[in-house]
Fold:
Amino acid sequence: MDPASGHDAVADVAILDGRIAAIGPSLPTSPAQRVINAQGCFVTPGLIDPHVHLREPGHEHKETIATGTAAAARGGFTTVCCMPNTSPALDTPELVRYIYDRAGHTGRCRVFPVAAATKGRHGDEPAEISLLNAAGAVAFSDDGDCIPTPGMMQRVLSLVARTGKAFMQHCQEPTLTRGSAMHAGEISVRLGLTGWPRLAEELIIERDVMINRAIGCRYHVQHLSSAGSVEIVRRARAAKQPVTAEASPHHLLLTHEACEGYNTLGKVNPPVREQTDIDAIRAGVADGTITVLATDHAPHSADEKALPFEEAPMGMVGLETALPLYREALVDSGAISWMRLIELMTVEPARLCGLDAMGLGRLEVGGPADVTVIDPGAEWTIEPASLVGRSKNTPFGGRRVRGAAVATIVRGEVANQR
Ligand code: DOR
Structure:
């Protein structure tokens, strides 16, 4: 299945020297060093996750490039883009090069850094955007935090526009979310927790779209969580603005009930909300408003997640569980086809991050041999202890799911096989 070309047929795929050598029915297997039987499986371009936290440098007790990319390969991902909220933040060309270097030595899949848009991600001085771009940053974001002031947003969008790369916004108006721990609704009131209202996300998207109208930067909404946000993005795209948006597994499946009992595994930023939001996000995927899927893989240690709810960090791991969860939320619900799901996980994120220029996100003869083999019928139970990533903080433990990556091939080498 290659959504980029529309190719969808029973075929063999031959790989030689890290490239796709041939695609076609009944290719000879005789000189092959290794044959993977993909009977009954989908053979797709390697999956790409444009939003993960690998925690290196600085938070290696949560995850490293080695453990995070092992989790990625296990989940079927051949490429991940890592966020800059590390310690120090990825705000210098040296740090961008450091990520490439570490990934080259320890990574199980391809890693591309998203650089900080402001120095230290503090939101008060732009980072050296053109130097970061030259060093290989594939996009810019202060993810984990929003760029709060319109003045700084205008400067950053102008600077990023010159690079041709995308700016990715973590949409959270800070004065509306101070001290917030979960979705502002009936449950936050009952639990006595400060709520994170939809308005804080919607206001930022609306503001940024207005600021960007005169600039025309490629503007991307990260982990969109509310029905109102879907509508704002829909309108902006209808007005031909260069706006894209991503949805995450938890926002497609979970409501604020995940935080009942002060369950910190359900604590995530932006928060999981209500069924009406889930329905709107799925509808946004179905009608092409949301064109990218991203896990926001956010590892945290068991000790950190054992803190009282208000003190526990926000975030959940996603790389190893994303594929069957997207399938449940989007394919089984009838929102989209398998082909479209693969498109949202391959060529669309490749375009967002400019990786399509390297041939990533598609399956074509002569292109890089990044390939995922998916068994759509594989049934399994999500067991946190069995995850290979360093942190196990998933709210989906015990869930029965369908679909698994049975082989993940990066540059022609098998990075994971189950
Ligand atoms: O829940 C989240 N966790 N959302 C973010 O934006 C950041 C992430 C993290 O770094 O833990």
The longest helix spans residues 198-212.
